[in-house]
Amino acid sequence: MGSPKGLSLMGSFLFILPRALKPNHIMSTQKHPAFITVGSSTYERIPIKTHFIKFGEDLFSILQKYLCTQFKNGDWIAISEKVVSVCQNNVRHISTVKAGWLAKFIVKGVKKYPNDIGYSRPEKMQVAIELSGHLRMMIAMFIGVIGKIFGIHGIFWIIAGKRVSEIDGFNPAAMWPYNEYVALPPKEPARIVQDIENKFGYPAVIIDGNNINVKVIAKSNGVKLNKKLVRLILLDNPMGQDDEMTPFILVRPKIFYSSKKE
User: Fold this and answer.
1) Backbone angles phi, psi at 236, to 5 degrees
2) Do the beta carbons of residue 204 and residue 220 sit within 8 Å?
3) Is 221 in contact with 240 (CB distance < 8 Å)?
4) Whether 180 contacts 6, CB under 8 Å
5) What pLDDT score does 262 carry?
6) Bridge partners, 173 (sequence order)
7) Is the CB of residue 185 less than 8 Å from the CB of residue 163?
């Protein structure tokens, strides 16, 4: 599959990273604590720094490159849905999207968040409408309004379906060229995480995380925790998907350290 529109001028040009951004496979973060306790268990979240991942790169090769020396038995890996879609070339450039009247109308009722663009941009809503269909989105909007009157939230996204809540992008604050693209829901996420586990032995989950909420899209069989617990472990969204370039989080139960000391 060819490079998305807007990257044709790059050709085979390799991104040159400033010295301060050169990969350092395991790094700490000041925004999020390394350790988090959920219930009676404590987990370490280790951000895995990568190179600048380009559209169409092989996800499996990237995982092997950065995790082969870091992964330990008992660990599992959380993967950003955005990096999966980028590697799949499952994206759209903003020049291909023209917001219609319905998109512009719906975003007027979308809740605005100070640190997240969410669905407040009409072009992003237009992509959702094209995935779900105009009629379905109109029904979702109507029933969603009724739900809000009775204090029930989230009905809009359930009725809209087509995983439109997983669409990510068109964020002016994002790093170029990602700010010009929207990442569509990753294709076959359940198969991808299981293939990762089968090939490398890395139990894996794919998450849709932002400053508002975190959703577990898929998890492989080797992740013994349920999706609710996985979500709580990653609820503060410790990933850095822009200039931090840490789209993977290695999760390590604290019991691993205890067993090593004994």
Assistant:
1) -85, 5
2) yes
3) no
4) yes
5) 45
6) none
7) yes
pTM given for the model = 0.80
pLDDT tens digits for range 98-152 = 999 999 999 887 766 666 666 778 999 999 999 999 999 999 999 988 988 888 8
Cα gap 244→258, rounded to integer Å: 30
The DSSP H or E segment spanning 204 is: strand 204-209
The CATH T-level fold of domain 21-85+188-261 is 60s Ribosomal Protein L30; Chain: A; (3.30.1330)
Q: CA of 98: how far to CAs of 116, 128, 129, 183, in Å?
A: 22, 12, 11, 16
Whole-angstrom CA distances from 257 to 35, 115, 179, 208 are 12, 36, 40, 29
Full DSSP string of 82-149: HHHHHHTT-EEEGGG----HHHHHHGGGSPPBTTB-TT-SHHHHHHHHHHH-HHHHHHHHHHHHHHHH
Query: In 10 A of CB 51, how many CB atoms?
Result: 16
Which of the residue ranges 14-18, 31-35, 72-76, 229-233 would you say has the lowest mean pLDDT?
Answer: 14-18
The Cα–Cα gap between 237 and 240 comes to 8
- Domain ranges within the chain, ordered by starting residue: 21-85+188-261, 91-181
CB 55 within 8 A of CB 85: no
